[in-house]
Amino acid sequence: MNTGAAITPAQYVQHHLEHLTLNLRTFRVGDLQEAQGFWVLNLDTFLVSLILGIGLVVFLRFVAVRMREVPGGLQNFVEIMVGFVDKSISEVYHGKSKLLAPMSLIIFMWVFLMNAMDLLPVDLLWRILDLFGVTYFKNVPTADPNVTFAMSLAVFFLIIFYNIKIKKFHLAKEMLTVPFGGYLFPLNLVFRLIEECVKPLSLALRLFGNMFAGELVFILIALLPWWGQGLPGGIWAIFHILVITLQAFIFMMLTVVYLSMAHDTH
């Protein structure tokens, strides 16, 4: 899009909802005519989520190798986060798992960071990248359903894995007899399959819906004259800090709840 040309509000909104894409068949970047289909990667979503994920791991590693008996500011912050996540898990999950606590910490902090990209000014990254010929760029990974569904499917596969690992043959009995007894096993099986399929859908759509709506509000505020953006933008940004934190916490807690149910054998 030509930054110097006058555009309508509808074109402005549409422009900010377009992704920087990579066609994996032709290796063409940003071609809107080929920006659909299975072999098209949303390159902006992939790069931002990857950079944030690597940055988070490097940050936690940096703090871990410099642990001191008298903690500094960064160590205090990480210890608070670890304690918060550990307490949240212990209230829901009463088993033993070496995976659940560190995975929950990474989920919470990574989703929070991806959500927090929504707090950057709407045009900031795009105008910087536009100087290098990048026309489209969405900087909020969790406003892309590909990311939220990918994370929810990873959780879904873990649910299936732990159901089979922990319950073994009891899983078949549970699927065929709960909740209506063995005589209605076809109905029990249908209900169980629906229940399991709803879990990744609820994880993905809740996070995507909230973040997409938040991003859209910021875009609409950016359509106001520059002198009218400060108050509504500031109010929405303050409120949105609560939203991005809450959505990261909900995604983490639902993951813990679902995995706890998979470990539950009674």
Q: Keyphrases for this structure?
A:
9 helices, mainly alpha, 266 residues, 2% strand
Summarize the structure.
The protein is 66% helix and 2% strand. It has helices at residues 9-16, 43-64, 73-90, 100-116, 124-130, 145-167, 169-177, 185-222, 230-263, and strands at 21-23, 40-42.
Describe the protein in words.
This protein is an all-alpha fold and 266 residues long. It has one domain. It has helices spanning 9-16, 43-64, 73-90, 100-116, 124-130, 145-167, 169-177, 185-222, 230-263, and strands at 21-23, 40-42. The longest helix has 38 residues, at 185-222. The model has no long low-confidence stretch (mean pLDDT 89).
Q: What share of the residues does DSSP label as strand, in percent?
A: under 5%
Distance separating the two termini? 59 Å
* Most strands sheet: 2 strands, antiparallel
Number of domains: 1
Q: Structural class of the secondary elements?
A: mainly alpha
User: Which outline best applies?
Assistant: globular
- State the order of secondary-structure elements, H for helix, E for strand: HEEHHHHHHHH
Helix segment tally: 9
C-alpha-based Rg, rounded: 22 Å
| Helical residue percent band | 55-70%
Low-confidence stretches: none
Strand order of the largest sheet: 1-2
